[in-house]
Amino acid sequence: MDDGTRPRVAVIGAGHRGRGWASLALSRGWPVALYDSESSLLQKAGSEVADRVRRLTDLGRADPLEAAGARASLVIGRSLLHAVGDAELVLDVMPTELAIKQRLLEQIEQVAVRDAIMVSLTASLHASSLAARLRRPERHLVACALDPVEIVPLVEIVPGPHTALAVTRQVKEWFVALDREPVLLRREVVGNASGRILAAIWRECIDLVLEGVVDLADVDRLVSRGPAAALAVAGPNLLQVMGAGAQGMEYFLGETLQAQEGVWSKLAHWETLSIEDRHRLIRMIERTYHDEPAELRMQRDRFLARLLGALEEQPREPEAELDEFPSPEPS
To answer: Looking at the DSSP assignment, which residues form a beta bridge with residue 330?
Structure first.
């Protein structure tokens, strides 16, 4: 490493998210090797990663001096050994199929240096199962980020039952060096934390649309211009603190919780959509949104960059000390 904060990185998986992680690391001046067993994905990966680094610079999300040599710092791996051989941080961004990822992690462990740390980027699998075949499961953990991963700063860190505390600390330090905001989960839960929150919000939005309460475009606007705007400034618990004022938390929360309980009892509670409702939802989305996805993503990225710039001026919320976290147990 150059100074302890710039590890040599191997990104395994050249799909959309793998290219996002590669561009993020390169934009901070980190050396990156990118590899995928699908050669077709690697053929255009170099130019797209370079484009993403330039876009991060244009959006003000990367230092132009750090990003200047990004393209030259990217190595397209000819093999897994070539990509991983001297890496200190290996990011597994391959598709989330358990058997495939277990086999990949075994292969990485065989060719990586002994002290390499492996991080699997996934929202649906956990280290307790992914690292089951590893000789050194203490060198592995799971992390989860929201798309686009090179712009949205939140990263959930989910250690496994065997993950060494020093490894968790090191991964957190590396994410901070990438200007990410890591959040540690105390234990493994299905969907991780952000995924569960998003799943609950989306289910309620779908239900409101299918029940004819609000149009699809309006429910999107309702969320983005209402709750999402407020929650971007502060999380739901901090918002309650702000709302309490002179009333005090006990009185205010008592009143608020009583009102919320009446709503909670009426929320959607279905676990699957019928085939008919699934087709209805798809038709509604197709009728509502006709713009090219690429243009929509560009608009999203520009908005996110402006929003994050404003949020960075706000005081940071307190973080839990890493030592406070017990060894995570799978749910």
So the answer is: 188
> What confidence tens digit (pLDDT) does each residue in 125-155 have?
999 999 999 999 999 999 999 999 999 999 9
Q: Which pLDDT value is given to residue 68? A: 83
CATH number for region 195-290: 1.10.1040.10
132, 195, 127: which is closest to 167 by C-alpha? 127
Residue 326 pLDDT grade (very low, low, confident, very high; cuts 50, 70, 90): very low
- CA angle at 192 for the pair 256 and 134, rounded to the nearest 5°: 155
For residues 1 and 7, the answer to whether their CB atoms sit within 8 Å is yes
Residues of the chain with CATH 1.10.1040.10: 195-290
The dotted CATH code for 9-185 is 3.40.50.720
Q: What are the backbone angles phi and psi of residue 240, rounded to the nearest 5°?
A: -65, -40
CATH 3.40.50.720 in the chain: give the residue spans. 9-185
Of all helices (H) and strands (E), which one includes residue 92? strand 89-92
Distance of CA 173 to the CA centre of its chain: 16
Give dist(CA 243, CA 238) in Å, integer.
9
Using pLDDT thresholds of 50, 70 and 90, give the confidence band for residue 240.
confident
Please give the model's pTM, rounded to 2 decimal places: 0.89
**Packing angle, helices 249-264 and 236-244, rounded to 10:** 130
